[in-house]
Amino acid sequence: MNLTLKVWRQKNTQTAGKFVTYKAEGISPDMSFLEMLDVVNESLTRKNDEPIYFDHDCREGICGSCSLYINGHPHGPKKAITTCQLHMRTFSDGETITIEPWRSAAFPVMKDLATDRSAFDRIQQAGGFISINTGGVPDANLIPIPKVIADEAFNSATCIGCGACVAACKNASAMLFTSAKITQLGLLPQGQPERYSRVQAMVAQMDEEGFGNCTNTGACEAECPKEITLNNIAFMNNDYFSAKLFREEQAHDHTGGE
Amino acid sequence: MSLDAKIPQGPLAEKWSKHKFNLKLVNPSNKRKYDVIVVGTGLAGASAAASLAALGYNVKAFCFQDSPRRAHSIAAQGGINGAKNYQNDGDSVYRLFYDTIKGGDYRAREGNVYRLAEVSVNIIDQCVAQGVPFAREYGGLLDNRSFGGSQVSRTFYARGQTGQQLLLGAYSALNRQIHLGKVKMYTRTEMLDVVTIDGHAKGIVTRNLKTGAIETHAAHAVLLATGGYGNVFYLSTNAIGSNVTAAWRAHKRGAYFANPCYTQIHPTCIPVTGDHQSKLTLMSESLRNDGRVWAPKTVEVAEKLRSKEITASQVKEEDRDYFLERKYPSFGNLVPRDVASRNAKEMTDDGKGVGATGLAVYLDFAESIQRLGEDTVRAKYGNLFDMYLQITDENPYKQPMRIYPAVHYTMGGLWVDYNLSTNVPGLYALGECNFSDHGANRLGASALMQGLSDGYFVIPYTLGDYLATIGPKPVDINHPAFEKTKQEVIAYNNKLLALKGNKTVVEYHRELGHIIWEYCGMARSEEGLTKAKAMIKALKADFWVNAIVTGENDEVNAALERAGRVADFIELGELMITDALARRESCGGHFRVESQTEEGEALRDDENFAFVSAWEFKGENQEEELHKEELVFENVKLTQRSYK
């Protein structure tokens, strides 16, 4: 296959970026999208030109590093996969493909196609944990958890923190990401003691990072490579308002236990 | 230097408890006077950083990824062993110990492995308390599955994403300590050297991957939890960024590298399709619970399958060879990985391979789907089947998977004693980065167990002993050793950046991978290894003349990062070959064709090789020196492993 790529190039956060056009030639349909970019980068390197920078690591859809906005979709046109799982057989010979980084004020472009997603880490650091130390915990089978609850918590816990939800949202909202952790821990018995302080701390951090609000468009759910559902946002909102209206005084500061 | 593993005296079951009592403690109010560096934030690193910070130490944690959550532990699929005996099927700490020692082909330390089995039960408790959503039964209790090399069900799992869930648990514990100000996290920061003062590790030199700044960090101890070196093969199931650089640079500063030739080739991976491929993808060992491995009985049938004249489902039952079930009736498809891989290779070597390249055998779910229904199979393995479909464009619910062995894990690593200390005082190695618990072959679901064991339950005890000994006097970052090491790192990077030849770093990496896979992969011979050693020497010389490294230091520069890592892989590759040559026996994943039983199984030579090989770096382009740590077996009897 031969393709034309329109790729966003940007030296660093401070510099303005622009689209640059490249040819990708002799591409096999069995290549992954990132392997196609590897081929382009190899030819740039041989000419002593600077290769295109993009985040990637595991290349099997689980680490959440890869983050390309391809032809107007985070992770490209296919449903429920990450960029690294997208294969070139999805495209046709001669096609022009536009590749951009995630676009959000809270995710500044670091270089070319890579953004700084540390805001996500800070949201997790604000409360995405259960305040226990190592050791001194009860036997794993002491508290039975209904299978449906455990499965539901698992579904929320599969979020890979890639940021596609933010990139897809017209408001650049991080509510799907934030709510996934709140729901996972809020469903499990181990998460109950800090349930209401957690939701307030994480939402406050999310707002501070400059992410937008949710207006129920559902683009995040449609584009999420792990199919995290909007129900998570409903769960978070329920807990958040419940905490604000009825539990503000009961809900201690989310200090992490010290 | 003599190698003292510091295994405590006394009966096996009491070693760890007694040792914990004998270790010195640091007073709670003194802990805050100590700084500890943790490099790597996978299962071992994140759990160690969180646990040490919870005790009160000041921790600085480093990862090269943009977030600690992306360490490659995240990709582990199948599960984690724990000797809970929840299934009432005869499991015990002793049985997990025995299975692990035997699975490792009697090349691991009894004391370490017993401790691993002992703390395995605490790990499961810890993870559940963190909110890790393990699979459960309808009664609300935890579910288990079986893994290779064992006849009990002791593997805890979270669908096919156990590593992800465990890592996110450890990441949450780490986040809590960051929140509390006890851990300072450095992301997109790569460790490039260790700083030693008077023979003790006192800090590291790093490169900030966003700005290129070369920086120094001081601490009372340095913990490396930087993973394995499987990417020396170029194609492996590791992440693209997984590398040996931190461990290798520590090796060049005096830390011995143990058993580098012990590498694990995992039997069930998606086969290679072409040169463009950048990595390989594992299909979890758990699939062998319900999938049956087979190849056509005759070369004629195999040829028809390769030319697509017929499909797999058209091959009659009597024309199929379920070779693992045939040869190993008691373990069947669940033989250990090294055995399963060698048998698959044997089939393809005999011309019975399938797929376009002929380098694959089948993993067939037709019978399970018939017995359990497609929905049950989907619930157990759905994400793995989806991954297979994305990569191959073939539906494994309708036709068998094609699988072939690929590099997955490295049992070798930095030499450590029972306290996880390398021979450089103050320098520790945890998780896959060290060598200590898996012998010559790791059993499935044991990597996650070992990473978390080291981080949650071993290092928090053993590190205190060293810290109490050296005292809390702050480490002086202005000591000339820091500036000296920093300047050496800068000079080395400049040497890389000056390379403006005609061949890309990726091409060198691919070439190195071909050499190692061909001569130091599933079968190794004196002749092949000797040849490979010369080839790697030539490759190294060529690299330092003809490689191309684009860009500058003071910017985001992936080319420079990759070049440094590949240069280290080339050097490590040579040491692997040296080690494989020196070990003139077969054991576990190290199969010397000169040393096999009549049935083609690995034949050990316990009289001459029941030792750990620990290699000492002697200078650039010098042969490394071998030190031997004799392995003492007081509890298990060394026998020819049999899974028949």
TrEMBL record, chain B:
Entry's Gene Ontology molecular function annotations: electron transfer activity; flavin adenine dinucleotide binding; succinate dehydrogenase (quinone) activity
Q: Does the keyword Flavoprotein apply?
A: yes
Q: Give the EC number(s) listed in the UniProt record.
A: 1.3.5.1
Name the membrane topology term: Peripheral membrane protein
Show the InterPro entries listed in the entry: FAD-dep_OxRdtase_2_FAD-bd (IPR003953), FAD/NAD-bd_sf (IPR036188), Fum_R/Succ_DH_flav-like_C_sf (IPR037099), Fum_Rdtase/Succ_DH_flav-like_C (IPR015939), SdhA/FrdA/AprA (IPR030664), Succ_DH/Fum_Rdt_flav_su (IPR011280), Succ_DH/fumarate_Rdtase_cat_sf (IPR027477)
The answer to keyword Transport applying to this record is yes
Please tell me the species this chain comes from: Mucilaginibacter glaciei
- Give the positions the UniProt entry annotates as the active site: 337
- Localization (cell): Cell membrane
Which PANTHER family does the annotation name? SUCCINATE DEHYDROGENASE 2 FLAVOPROTEIN SUBUNIT (PTHR11632), SUCCINATE DEHYDROGENASE FLAVOPROTEIN SUBUNIT (PTHR11632:SF53)
Class in the EC hierarchy, top level: oxidoreductase
Task: Name it.
Answer: succinate dehydrogenase
Task: Recite the UniProt keywords alphabetically.
Answer: Cell membrane, Electron transport, FAD, Flavoprotein, Membrane, Oxidoreductase, Transport
> One GO CC annotation, please?
plasma membrane
- Cofactor(s) named in the record: FAD
GO biological process terms, alphabetically, are:
anaerobic respiration
